[in-house]
Design brief:
- Its EC number is 7.2.2.10.
- This is Calcium-transporting ATPase.
- There is one protein chain.
- About 45% of the residues are buried.
- By secondary structure, the chain is α/β, with parallel strands linked by helices.
- The chain is built from 43 helices and 26 strands.
- Strand 10 and strand 11 form a beta hairpin.
- The protein is about 50% helix and about 15% strand.
- Helix 19 runs parallel beside helix 35 and helix 30 crosses helix 31.
Length: about 1150
């Protein structure tokens, strides 16, 4: 048990108790994360008394944001009295971590050191391993320097563990291929151009690997097996998870349990020595068995929890990507990549293995994950080597896989460092503060009880069950005295076990593990634990349109060739030859998708993004021969799609040496670049007088919720094309002026079924849904009306509906004002989304934002909760996000909100239940110890109560499924206290009832008709057993009350949680067994049916009592604020502030 770095004990207690008490008053998320200096300078500004005007004035008069506090005028250490959160001798509230998402290592280390912990290995198991995190970069550098040696050592270790079998040679056989594994691995690792040339360059290497650079490998099962046998699989040995015995050992590391074990052994020894083996082993043996029960139940619970986290981590690492096999694009797991595969790369992808670039355009790789340098490296024929684990920052291309698994530096890195799943959550940190505060109170009580019991024992005031005095000076032998003292110490230590709610912070992990597993079924993969609970506080969701609110099944439903509408849109007979030829040329070449024959030889298949697939499918209807068109053109340069410019372009040279530049993109933006258009009769005409017509066509399409895409081209003089050398072409900026418009299409992407209901559910829950899309403002408005984000056309006025460029042009102050009113933002860029998120966060909103592109990463990172798309999202977006929505559906986002609220609600249920037990047990033991010198609950009984309260209680209450009731109340506010007034009311009523009933039984129980009349010793045993039984049954019945803190009907939905019913049932059955059959071990006697009925009735009364209690109104002001008010900034403390302000002004 440790409270570190607190100086003198008494001062430490004051500081810690006052700061931790304030944890009751902080909201779920706290304020936005601040700088480390700001936290050190004015941590108090975020605490309970910050509601006052004094702190607001301080913020106005001092530049706290930049930590410019003048120490010569003001020093917090000189303030004579302290408020709950003020610095005192440099003290900072260690549990005030506003946002763990970007918390510094220093603040994370500080709260760990401040926590009162009985079992550090268990308490901090699921928090971030700071040493490991700090050493990760050093490990990466070492692998870069000594990759070959580390790989050899790893292979040797694996061979010794028989995890891989090499046969006679030290390496797998590569006889079927013309190159050895080590040669291939070292070529890429060392970027050895000489070795590449020796093997005939890229084409020669592809021949040795039996790969076609255009169509890839065959993909046959036998071929894949051969390649894995020869060059290894794209997996790496993971460090094995902890076994059950490790969790058993961790559960045993509790300091109080160790003390109890020592006391049990001593009691066992003295008992056997004094009474004999037959009777003397009961006291010590019963404590030992109770300890073993606690340890085993705790270990089993923790072990199952760890398995859930391991399964979720495997899901996170299982990236799905495309490969080209047998001329077709297939989606496979990253673990199924083999040497020889041809892998297409695009912006945001992770390079899945080591390889060599086959072809690419503007391909730029972020290698910081491996080199540690945040530098973008451009890849071309002069720098073709690609490293696994890096990210594609720009452009696209194809790569030939040459190294997989532990034959890559990324594989070695992953094999050498275990994935650290530990992470703090705001609720976890706050609960550690609460547990520390309660623990200090409990420790004080236990010491008081110990002192009173020892004093009474040695003064002869403590009596046995038969009424005789336990200790008589000069008569009691040493063995009996020591045994008596051991019994008293055991009781005191057991009170500490019950009083320190060790399971309180761990309940967060338990409910998060349960929620994460269930959220997977609801198509949400949690990457950061804190996002689960923060999502419950979300006040606004900034959602993409395409694929999230809409179904992402796009089809071309309207098409215009020049000014003429094609009906049906896929009829090529309505266009003349030249226009049709140019349009097909632009569709086939200016794309990142592809068209290929199905495996069964039937209809053609189309791959690519949903928009690309819709356009390519339309091109096929127009008679496009995809491969033929592409083979007749040489691509000179590509300008990839840019979310700022909203268009992509390609320069190509035809067989007759003509050069065409094709552009495709947002219709109104492409139209603005056009000076001519080609009509359906293939006549070239000026667009000057027709622009209004085309704008009308675009607006008409947009009003029908269609995505408008325009096609344009420009004939280009080949003499003006830069030198065909690759480096000069790479710098070429494609001309985009004086374009010729070829056509405009309207692509329908219908709203997802159920999205309107999901939006309404959010609105009812107090969560505002905002649409942020790159589409035309009219299209965005139309979809918003369809989805229910906009109620009517009357709402569609600025700034409710706004364009990204308009919002971007506002000042920072105006953006903060306007952001609150924005519902739809059209034609927005990723930077606009980031600005909106920042403005909303500054305004106090808890913001969830969805994103799928690489450029969305800053907004995903900046938001309180970043939600990336699992289907269309890039790997960069996924890594920057907190939760991955696996089906890209907005309804799944709403389910995440529901689960987030459930996490917070379940923790509150458990807190209410546990604190009721804490208060009742402590008060009963203290009053009984002071008044009579004995306590009614023995060590074994208290250990059983602790098991009910901690592990079993957490399992029962922290795994309650979410209910519809959660979505009919406002989000949990930033400043909302952890223990609400409703919880305080319920807690006080139940605890008061239990204390009164049990104290009455303890002091007057002998007078009950079913107890009175027996011998004094039997009466004492019956009375103490009744107290114990009534206490446990009160907890069992109170578990039902804790399910619904704010509802009268506590049984609603109880049958939908079999785990809760099972645990309650098991607890009740075990209690019966303890009373009726284990009396020797638990110091109880059998109770008649009358006393069982009394116990049941006393427990049952808690139900109507709770129902009546819920009719009592509670004040709006949190109780914690009322209690802490006397300790807040007093007039004495305010004087130095006022003097300082005066000095600063002068």
């Amino acid at each position: 048990m440790c409270v570190q770095n607190f100086g003198q004990p008494f001062t430490a207690l004051i500081r810690l108790a006052s700061s931790v008490a304030n944890c009751f008053n902080r909201g779920t998320c706290g304020d936005r994360a601040t700088t480390h200096d700001e936290q050190h300078s004015f941590q108090h500004s975020k605490c309970s008394f910050s509601q006052g005007k004094s702190v607001a004035l301080l913020r106005q008069n001092w530049d706290v944001r930049n930590s410019r506090v003048y120490p010569q005028f003001f020093d917090l250490t000189t303030v004579p009295s302290i408020s709950p959160c003020l610095h005192y001798d440099g003290f900072v509230d260690p549990f005030d971590i506003a946002n763990t998402k970007n918390a510094s290592f220093e603040s994370l280390r500080r709260w760990r050191q401040a926590a009162l912990v009985l079992n550090a290995s268990r308490r901090f198991r699921y928090t971030l391993d700071l040493k490991k995190a700090e050493g990760k970069e050093q490990r990466r550098r070492m692998i870069r320097s000594h990759a070959q040696v580390i790989r050899a050592a790893l292979l040797f270790k694996l061979a010794g563990q028989q995890e891989i079998v090499f046969g006679a040679s030290a390496l797998p056989s590569t006889d079927d291929y013309g190159i050895e594994l080590e040669q291939l691995a070292s070529m890429t690792r060392d970027r050895d151009f000489f070795a590449l040339d020796q093997h005939g360059g890229l084409k020669g290497l592809a021949g040795l690997l039996k790969t076609n650079l255009e169509t890839g490998i065959s993909g046959a099962d036998a071929d894949l097996v051969d390649r894995k046998n020869a060059f290894g699989s794209n997996t790496y040995p993971r460090k094995k998870g902890k076994g059950f015995f490790t969790f058993l050992w961790d559960a045993w590391q509790d300091l109080t349990l160790i003390i109890l074990a020592v006391a049990a052994i001593a009691s066992l020894a003295f008992g056997i020595k004094t009474v004999g083996l037959k009777e003397g082993w009961y006291d010590g043996g019963s404590i030992t068995l109770a300890l073993l029960l606690v340890i085993f139940v705790t270990a089993i619970s923790d072990y199952k929890q760890s398995l859930q986290f391991e399964n979720l981590n495997e899901e996170k690492q299982n990236i799905q990507l495309e490969v080209i096999r047998d001329g077709r694009r297939e989606k496979i797991s990253i673990f199924d990549i083999v040497v020889g595969d041809v892998v297409p790369l695009k912006i945001g992808d992770q390079v899945p293995a080591d390889g060599i670039l086959i072809s690419g355009h503007s391909l730029a790789i972020d290698e910081s994950s491996m080199t540690g340098e945040s530098k973008i490296v451009h890849k071309d024929k002069k720098a073709p080597f690609l490293m696994a684990g890096c990210k594609v920052a720009d452009g696209f291309g194809n790569m030939l896989v040459t190294g997989v698994g532990i034959n890559t530096e990324w594989g070695l890195l992953m094999a050498s460092i275990s994935e650290d799943t530990g992470e703090e959550t705001p609720l976890q940190v706050r609960l550690n503060g609460v547990a520390t505060f309660i623990g200090i109170v409990g420790l004080s009580v236990a010491l008081s009880v110990l002192a009173v019991l020892l004093a009474r024992y040695f003064t002869g005031k403590t009596k046995n069950e038969d009424g005789s005095v336990q200790f008589v000076h000069g008569q009691t032998c040493i063995n009996e005295a020591v045994d008596g003292v051991i019994g008293i110490v055991t009781i005191a230590v057991t009170i500490v076990v019950v009083a320190v709610p060790e399971g309180l912070p761990l309940a967060v992990t338990l409910t998060l593990a349960y929620s994460m597993r269930k959220m997977m079924a609801d198509k949400a993969l949690v990457r950061r634990l804190s996002a689960c609970e923060t999502m419950g506080s979300a006040t606004t969701i900034c959602s993409d349109k395409t694929g999230t609110l809409t179904s992402n099944r796009m089809t071309v439903v309207e098409a215009y060739a020049g000014k003429n509408k094609l009906d049906p849109p896929g009829d090529p007979l309505q266009m003349q030859g030249e226009l049709l030829s140019l349009l097909i040329e632009g569709i086939a070449v200016n794309t990142t998708g592809s068209v290929f024959l199905a495996k069964d030889g039937g209809n053609v298949e189309v791959s690519g993004s949903p928009t690309e697939k819709a356009i390519l499918s339309w091109g096929v209807k127009l008679g496009m021969k995809f491969d033929t068109v592409r083979s007749e053109a040489i691509v000179l340069h590509v300008s990839p799609f840019n979310s700022e410019k909203k268009r992509c372009g390609v320069a190509l040279q035809l067989t007759n040496s003509d050069v065409h530049i094709h552009w495709k993109g947002a219709a109104e933006m492409v139209l603005a670049l056009c000076t001519h258009f080609i009509d359906s009769d293939s006549c070239l005409k000026s667009i000057e007088n027709e622009k209004s017509t085309f704008k009308g066509i675009i607006e008409d399409m947009a009003s029908k919720s269609l995505r408008c895409v325009a096609f344009a081209y420009k004939p280009y003089d080949k003499d003006n094309v830069p030198n065909t050398r690759e480096e000069e072409l790479a710098k070429w900026v494609l001309p985009e002026d004086s374009l010729v418009l070829l056509g405009i299409v309207g692509i329908k992407d219908p709203c997802r079924s159920g999205v309107k209901d999901a939006v309404k559910l959010c609105t009812d829950a107090g969560v505002k849904v905002r649409m942020v899309t790159g589409d035309n403002i009219q299209t965005a408005k139309s979809i918003a009306l369809e989805c229910g984000i906009l109620a009517s056309d009357a709402d569609a006025t600025e700034p409710t509906v706004i364009e990204g460029k308009t919002f971007r042009a506002l000042s920072e102050e105006d953006r903060e004002k306007v952001a609150k009113r924005i519902t739809v933002m059209g034609r927005s860029s990723p930077s606009d989304k980031l600005l909106l998120v920042q403005a909303l966060c500054k305004g106090g909103d808890v913001v969830a934002v969805t994103g799928d592109g690489t450029n969305d990463a800053p907004a995903l990172h900046e938001a309180d909760i970043g939600l990336s798309m699992g289907i269309e999202g890039t790997e960069v977006a996924k890594e920057s996000s907190d939760i991955i929505i696996l089906d890209d559906d907005f309804a799944s986002v709403v389910k995440v909100v529901r689960w987030g609220r459930s996490v917070y609600a379940n923790i509150q249920k458990f807190i209410q239940f546990q604190l009721t037990v804490n208060v009742a047990a402590l008060v009963i033991n203290v009053v009984a110890a002071i008044s009579s010198g004995n306590i009614p609950l023995t060590a074994v009984q208290l250990l059983w109560v602790n098991l009910i309260m901690d592990t079993l209680g957490a399992l029962a209450l922290a795994t309650e499924p979410p209910t519809d009731h959660l979505m009919h109340r406002a989000p949990v506010g930033r400043r909302e206290p952890l223990i609400t007034n409703i919880m305080w009311r319920n807690l006080i009523i139940q605890a008061l009832y239990q204390v009164i009933v049990l104290l009455v039984l303890n002091f007057q129980g002998r007078n009950l008709p079913f107890i009175k009349g027996h011998s004094w010793e039997q009466e004492t045993k019956l009375k103490n057993t009744l107290v114990f039984n009534a206490f446990v049954l009160c907890q069992i019945f109170n578990e039902f009350n804790a399910r619904k803190p704010d509802e009268i009907n506590v049984f609603k939905g109880v049958t939908k949680n079999p785990l809760f019913m099972g645990i309650v049932g098991i607890t009740a059955v075990l209690q019966i067994i303890i009373i009726e059959f284990l009396g020797k071990f638990t110091s109880t006697v059998k109770l008649g049916w009358q006393l069982w009925l009394v116990s049941m009735v006393l427990g049952l009364i808690s139900w109507p009592l709770a129902a009546v209690g819920k009719l009592i109104p509670v004040p709006q002001t949190p109780l914690s604020k009322v209690v802490l008010k006397p300790f807040q900034l007093s007039k004495v403390v305010l004087k130095p502030f006022q003097r300082c302000r005066t000095a600063c002004r002068t």
